[in-house]
Write a structure and sequence with these properties.
This is Glycolate oxidase. This protein has 247 residues and is of the alpha/beta class. The protein is built from 13 helices and eight strands. The two termini are 31 Å apart.
């Protein structure tokens, strides 16, 4: 199995340790991982603001970088959802369709493709609550949605339950958006901040020491809100916990 590692631009800029943990975690399971050095943004910010045509060159570059891999794996449900479901600007050639179909978010790759049943190196003796990015939840179906009457499941929780010492706790409104929303936090700053504060307070009330997610973008926004509210909650990407981070 040959995997192309897709590290979103904001992860590369603000949370490179998440990309490193993702690489190390995949290699622990014997996956051959390549990192195409010419990769840039996947084009999501432009598409989110309605500039679909302007994202064409960026999306075409993504396809050139990642064509030919068995899978493309990235630690971001938001970006992966964009590649899989909104990559509409380029001509839909065989290469484009294959890249779209083979791109997976890290948690679903571990859960659905590798079918991981243990993380023997991982120990995290803390109370942890989970945040599911909206795109990962409703676009990639990484977990069931509480607003729907359907069988409850959670791929991230299935993986986290395999980590020694980790105690999962729930918040009052687990599926509520944190307000980041990419460019939404720029154009609707006040609304975004209030939503993030509500989320941070809910997380703190749960008694969780840490909040984890498969999206650093949401965690970055929530952590900023928590710090401004002087809340003690800490934030960590799920790749770091699964790769053996202790704190």
């Amino acid at each position: 199995m040959r995997v192309g590692l897709f590290v979103p631009c904001y992860v590369d800029a603000f949370h490179p340790e998440v990309g490193q943990a993702t690489l190390e975690l995949l290699e622990r399971f014997g996956v051959e991982v390549d990192y195409p050095f010419d990769q840039t943004c996947c084009g999501q910010p432009m598409t989110n603001t309605g500039c679909h045509e302007e994202s064409r060159a960026t999306e075409e570059l993504f396809v050139r970088n990642f064509s030919g891999y068995d899978y493309i794996v990235g630690p971001s449900g938001s970006c992966v959802n964009h590649v899989r479901h909104n990559f509409d600007a380029p001509e839909q050639t065989d290469d484009v369709r294959q890249v779209r179909a083979r791109t997976y978010e890290l948690v679903e790759f571990l859960h659905d493709i590798l079918k991981v049943d243990a993380f023997p190196w991982a120990e995290f003796p803390h109370k942890v609550t989970l945040h599911n990015n909206c795109n990962a939840l409703r676009g990639l179906n990484i977990a069931s949605m509480t607003e729907l009457r359907e069988k409850q499941y959670s791929k991230p929780c299935d993986l986290l339950e395999k980590v020694k010492g980790l105690e999962l706790v729930t918040i009052t409104r687990p599926d509520e958006c944190c307000g980041f929303g990419g460019t939404f936090s720029v154009f609707e700053e006040a609304v975004s901040a209030r939503m993030g504060q509500d989320k941070a307070r809910d997380q703190s009330r749960s008694g969780a020491e840490y909040v984890t997610s498969s999206d650093s973008s949401c965690l970055m926004h929530q952590e900023g809100c928590a710090k401004r509210l002087h809340l003690p909650t800490k934030y960590i990407h799920i790749s770091q916990i699964l790769n053996g981070a202790r704190a």
